Amino acid sequence: MFSCSQLKSVSKPGRYAGGEFGQIIKDKEKVAARFAFCFPDSYEIGMSNLGMRILYGVLNQADDVWCERVFSPWKDMEERMRADGVPLCAHESGDPVRDFDFLGFTLQYEMCYTNVLNVLDLAGMPLYAAERDDTYPIVIGGGPCAYNPEPIADFFDLFNIGEGEEMLPEIVRLYIKMKEKGATKAEFLIEAARTIPGVYVPSLYDVTYNSDGTVKAYTPKYEGVPAKVTKRIVKDLDKMFFPEAVVMPYIECVQDRIMLEVFRGCIRGCRFCQAGMIYRPVREKSPETLLRQAKCLYENTGYEEISLTSLSISDYTRLHELTDGLIEWTNEKKVNLSLPSLRVDSFSRELMDKVASVRASSITFAPEAGTQRLRDVINKNVTEEDLMRSAGIAFGSGKEQVKLYFMNGLPTETYEDLDGIAALAKATVEQFYATPNHGKRPPQVTISVSCFVPKPFTPFQWEAQDTVETLEEKNRYIGTRVTDRKIRYTHHDARVSHIEAVLALGDRRLAPALVKAHEEGFEFDAWDEYFSYEKWMSVFAAAGIDTAFYANRRRDKDEVLPWDIIDCGVTKSFLWREREKAYGETTTPSCREKCSGCGANCLGGKDICCPNAKN
Amino acid sequence: MLSERKELNEYPPLAEPRTVRLRFCKRGALQYISHLDLQRTFARILARAELPLWYTQGFNPHPKIVFGLPLPVGSESVCELVDIRIERDMPCGEILERLHAATTPELDFTECYVPERKFADIASAEYKIHIDAAVPSDEIACAIKTVLTTSPLKMMKRSKSGEKEVDIIPFIKSADAVPDGTGYTLNVLLSAGSTDNLNPEYVVSALRQRLLLLRSGEEYSVMRLRVCLENGEEFR
Q1: pLDDT above 90 coverage of chain B, percent
Q2: Nearest CA in chain A to B217
Q3: Per residue in A322-334, pLDDT tens?
């Protein structure tokens, strides 16, 4: 627990003070297991995460389990903690994390890995799992980065592969049962790996490598330990636990609103998109469930905004039913509806009027690539016509600002495609003037270009990322093509994307480099002001790691990939077929139009859109 | 519990929106929440409590929420005041009950009434300050009183026009200090309101600078006890 003088000496002390409405307090003497759930970034980022809200609620459903929150202290507080010898404590009780039964991390982006190590260190725990005896908490990882957990595998006891709503309580239950019988941590881990689907215990596998540096094989050390760990999903989202009361932060967070999760998965299959593959099969909640949950959440939170969150919200089959049902009471209560991601091919005036908030002056679309050819390669399946129609609707209803998201460095990209980015922005400006009833102020079109990072479990998982030099040159080039003052151009730092690629595509041999990065004081790498490319490269060099091997090398079809130990439902052969189609500039229809046989239907799921699904 | 409540339309509408004043405490963890964050939190508390709020009639309707005297970060209080406007005749007891269910004990509501005075009448605020000290003495307690009553007591004071040195004694209306088992308990009455206002942190800083208190990591705490009128009576 922090003292008053510690809290008074740091910026934003509300990050650490706790006491929020809705936090769960239990009697620690009366619980059988204590779970510290960590989002390894600042409080404002962590409190914005829906997954953490859900799992906090799921775990605390059991009377004999107490789940508390943990966040990375900001730099000023960390300095204070180290100076005063204060260990990292859980948010609710203020008790040291080191004394908990579990320390779980949600791994939302690769650039949080140094924060994970720093949290372990601040908690007073050895970084390597092998160096932690039975008195330390069991360290669990989950979230999207757990689909290739290998770069951080040595620091974790166990990973949750897939959705945690059912798996995580099963893990804790097994632990309580075995702890009562006096089992060791090692015995628990083997039993969990053998009996709970979706559990991956990295220490139970031998990894061998070929002479060229690629992975040769993963071999389970014990009988009954699965040769491949299959992702867990929740089959029926209507019956799934969903937190109808949440912890209300006092300080402003990034997502400070009701997040209503409408469905999981995505019918689209964009070839660069990891989320679109790993969350398959598509499973929807019914409008009845959603309307009930939304009302309940409003009564329990008082939030003034409801965001419908899902990968591509306009693909929800009963969207109008849902929005109509919400508007019945949200207007009266002065609650705004917001939709985070809109596809230009399904954007309509009707939809926009429903979600129109007087304050929002800008609207965002993601064409991702500048030419139809490249959009076909990545299977984005939207046309320039779609974009112009959507921008026209936005301009015609009084908006002046449109934001367009693109990527550069995509497979097969040429400078013609980059010219296309600038041309599309220019066409959007022209669309403004061609729209009757456009606003009085001149339009502002922002193009935001990020660098392509190949991700595991995508058709582009075999691809080489462009080198930093090439990406930077492309960034510069786009800048030279943008001449109109009504177009604002921003781009991501290619050097961050390079490190991200190494960590996304890496294997267990990266661990020593990460430890070295931690020892050099790296943290908050997701924050521009703390990221240093030069320092990262020197750390990799010192650890004898060639970053190009991971980021800039095209992999062979038959290469064993570090994440082949995981089965995410979507098969490797489907991903390869999609890759081949990308190079043939051929698109694949959405799951709703035609099943392309990705394999995710083997996982089951109620009302999923795959026609061949097993229910 | 929510379902047992009467529906809002069961309360008769008011011809004119009614202003009601709420008194609440802000203690413990809540002392670290800034005024801006408190304002946002309040809108949500009022929504959770499901009060018959009156909304401004403009382009961007919002409830009218006016705070009496912002509390600095790092101070606790048992006497915070806020005015809200309602459009239906809900009894004050019912309002308090609903608010109580919508918040935590550290931010709890203790009174609800129709106000007679305007916040502009607030002239001062009384604070209890506790300063930890290993060996408290009568001599130091006397010295504290002397420092806080002898002009000039020049401090760098922040204001909208920047930082400048000012004598803070005119803003200290009374000051008392007694030693106790763990340090010193101070009772100070400081100028408060929109014209003259002194943050109690300046008092603590002054003692830190002049008497070398709080130099070894000792803790201190500040509690606002009441807000007062020009004549020293409690403001309601």
Answers
A1: 83
A2: A5
A3: 999 999 999 888 8
pLDDT for A58 equals 97
Q: Domain ranges in chain A?
A: 4-230
* Average of per-residue pLDDT across A498-517: 97
Nearest by CB: B48 against A20, A250, A301:
A301
Asked whether residue B129 falls in the same domain as residue B152, the answer is yes
What average pLDDT score do residues B10-36 get? 96
Chain B residues with CB under 8 Å of A251 CB are 33-34, 37
B107 and B172 share a domain? no
Is residue B19 a part of any domain in this protein? Answer: yes
Rounded Cα gap, residues A111 and A502, in angstroms:
11
- The complex's ipTM works out to 0.90
pLDDT at A615: 42
pLDDT in tens, A153-164: 999 999 999 999
Shortest CA gap A17–chain B (Å):
5
Q: Are residues B206 and B182 in the same domain?
A: yes
Give the pair of three-digit tokens for residue A521.
Answer: 């004081």
Distances in Å between the Cα of A185 and the Cα atoms of A125, A149, A161, A175, A179 are 16, 20, 20, 9, 9
Pairing mode, strands B75-88 and B220-228 = parallel
User: Per mean pLDDT, which range of A10-24, A348-362, A480-494, B97-111 is the poorest?
Assistant: A348-362
Chain A neighbors of B29, CB-CB under 8 A? 17-19
Distance CA(B100)–CA(B106), nearest Å, equals: 11
**pTM of the entire structure?**
0.94
Least reliable range by pLDDT among A38-47, A358-367, B82-91: A358-367
Domain boundary among B82, B100, B116: B116
Sign of the CA dihedral with A119 first, then A121, A124, and A130 last: positive
Look up the domain containing B40 and give its range: 2-116
The reply to whether B109 and B29 lie within a common domain is yes
Single-letter code of the amino acid located at B186: L
What is the per-residue pLDDT across A547-578, written as a single tens digit (0 to 9) for each? 999 999 999 999 999 999 999 999 999 999 99
3-state helix, strand, coil in chain B (%, to 5): 30, 35, 35
Residue A89 clears pLDDT 60, i.e. is over it: yes
Question: Cα dihedral sign for A257, A261, A264, A269?
Answer: negative
Nearest CB to B37 within list A252, A300, A304: A252
How confident is the model over A27-44, as a mean pLDDT? Answer: 97
Check: CB of residue A42 under 8 Å from CB of residue A78.
no
Report the CATH architecture of A4-230. Answer: 3-Layer(aba) Sandwich (3.40)
The total number of structural domains in chain B stands at 2
Are the CB atoms for B206 and B186 separated by under 8 Å?
Answer: no
Q: B123: buried, middle or exposed (CB in 10 Å: 19+, 13-18, 0-12)?
A: buried
Q: Are A13 and B41 in contact (CB < 8 Å)? A: no
Of B81, B116, B151, the last residue of a domain is B116
The chain A residues in contact with chain B (CB within 8 A) are: 3-5, 7-8, 13-14, 16-21, 248, 250-252, 298-304, 333-334, 358-359
CB contact under 8 A, A4 and B102: no
For B184-222, what is each residue's pLDDT tens digit?
999 999 999 988 999 999 999 999 999 988 888 889 999
Taking the C-alpha atoms of residue A560 and residue A228, their distance in angstroms, rounded to an integer, is 13
Q: How far apart are CA B91 and CA B11, in angstroms?
A: 9
Q: What percent of chain B has pLDDT over 70?
A: 99
* Helix A287-301 vs helix A319-330: crossing angle, to nearest 10: 30
List the single residue in A21, A303, A358 with the smallest CB-CB distance to B104: A21
C-alpha distances in angstroms, A107 versus A148, A273, A274?
A: 11, 17, 14
CA A423 to chain centre: 31
